[in-house]
Amino acid sequence: MMIVTTTGYIVACIGPFMFDFNNNDAAIMKDILLRNTDHILSWQKEHDILVVDRGFRDSMGIMKALGLEAAMPTFLDGRRQFSAEEANESRCITKIRWVVEA
């Protein structure tokens, strides 16, 4: 798993991990955070935000429990469209993720 800043700077490369149905992105992130791999929790400063994609949905609870602020594109959850605030936040997260993944 790669830990990357919003400018594309690679902070850490953790792994390799076996990837299967039980060991997905969220499970790997939970493991990294709970074991504090590479002292990742000490890198976080106040008001830092972890930007993740929807594959990390199941690890959001552990991030919040550890006091980390995380941002992920929102789901419609049966609605037809987002509110203006939700749409703008989702666009911002997508733009940041695009810089990292490009």
From TrEMBL:
Q: Which domain of life is it from?
A: Eukaryota
User: What name appears for this protein in its UniProt entry?
Assistant: DDE Tnp4 domain-containing protein
